[in-house]
Design brief:
CATH class: Mainly Alpha
Helix content: over 70%
Number of domains: 1
Largest sheet: none
Number of helices: 4
CATH architecture: Up-down Bundle
Low-confidence stretches: none
Order of helices and strands: HHHH
CATH topology: Four Helix Bundle (Hemerythrin (Met), subunit A)
Mean pLDDT: 96
Length: 154
């Protein structure tokens, strides 16, 4: 069995987790755009006030911060600060040939932590709630990175 062939069940777990998180990152960007179009608020650049098919009556107030739009933008930024580290650490972790159960716990645990973070952020939960889910995901990524280093040292 090749470590980086899809006959490796650990790589399959990584591929599923990575694909789900790609969809999360890209979907969050689309959610932000949808919220901007739905509300007509939360535009960020002066050129966004040029008339066009999606903004027929631009108004300078559209550049004001809109919590409805900005909440999604902050979730997207948070994803971009956290998920790429998972992609890298996860792929390196696959190279250590870990036990399948460990890969499943760590990788699916990360996906679950990010999903819970999304729900907490989208529903306006307190920082402590969001931080709990962030911490779980962060510790998982760090654990995979440490296990890669341990594997290299062995």
């Amino acid at each position: 069995m090749e470590l980086f062939g899809f006959d490796n069940p650990v790589l399959q777990v990584y591929a599923i987790a990575a694909a789900l998180t790609v969809l999360k990152v890209m979907g969050q960007g689309w959610m932000t755009v949808w919220r901007m179009m739905r509300s007509g608020e939360g535009l960020v650049s002066p050129e966004d006030l040029r008339p066009g098919p999606l903004n027929r009556a631009p108004d300078p107030r559209q550049l004001a911060v809109s919590d409805y739009v900005d909440r999604s933008r902050r979730m997207h930024r948070n994803d971009l600060e956290n998920i790429p580290a998972f992609w890298i650490a996860g792929l390196l972790f696959v190279a250590t040939d870990p036990a399948l159960w460990l890969a499943q716990v760590l990788m699916y645990g990360f996906v679950a932590a990010r999903a819970a973070h999304f729900v907490a952020y989208a529903t306006g939960q307190s920082h402590e709630v969001r931080a709990t889910f962030y911490t779980v995901g962060s510790l998982i990524v760090m654990a995979m990175a440490v296990l890669v280093l341990v594997g290299l040292a062995a």
